[in-house]
Write a structure and sequence with these properties.
Elements lengths: L3 H10 L7 H20 L2 H17 L8 H21 L17
Helix pairs in contact: 3-4
Amino acid sequence: MLSPALGQEFANTVGFSTPSEEVREAETYEVIARWALMTSMGLLEEVLEASDWFCELHDMGEIETDDEDSFHRILVSHGVSLINKLLDSEKVIMVMEEEDGMYDD
């Protein structure tokens, strides 16, 4: 898992500019506060369980990540399955915003 500092380093390598010290401190505080909240609500446990399950599938050869496209599809599949798991646990709710004309006939 990325620490806030390592996350910032990664962001820099993919083209994001280095924030000021004040912004970096605020981001670090926000990340730590969210981790604490997710841990206290049991969300981190759900995420770890879903990730362990996905790793087991990979180790069993059920998931192939030989090329970038298949790796991308795997990450998307994991993300969607994780969202479904969190919704099923009722620890997270989904709020969807209606787009203009979405329900027009």
